[in-house]
Amino acid sequence: MNEIIRDMGLEDAGPVQTIEAQVHTHPWSLGNFLDTLRAGGQGLVLQKNGATLGYAVFTAVLDEGELLTLGVAPSFQRQGLGARLLGCVLQRAREVKLHRFFLEVRASNASAQALYAKFNFQPVGRRRNYYATLTGQREDALLWECAL
Fold first, then answer.
1. Catalytically annotated residues
2. Residues 119-127: contacts with CB within 8 Å, 24+ apart?
């Protein structure tokens, strides 16, 4: 298969939001993606044979970056696509001389935490009751940091 990772454009927001809705219980809206890109946020899209299979959206302020959202279509998960996207995000961060990179992850999301640990992210904090759940309860977010 012909796989590419490229910059996300406004035209990618629809396909990316479709994946987002499949993989997150409280997904970003199409407007969230468009607003973030228009405000200077950056995104990457992973495609195979022209089909969008994954994405990552991130931002940078001064010498710090933050991963805002990342997703891979359900039928393509567990194939290393998320790791390829995250690796490209961190490479971009290094290229623009960021010193630290942050992300938040649900306390219950062990698979995402395992991925982040492979890239030398470390847990550095907790945001109590940060995420909504489908049951109406709240879940903690773990704040992770990677020194670049």
1. 104, 116
2. 119/83, 119/86, 119/87, 119/90, 119/146, 120/146, 120/147, 121/145, 121/146, 122/146
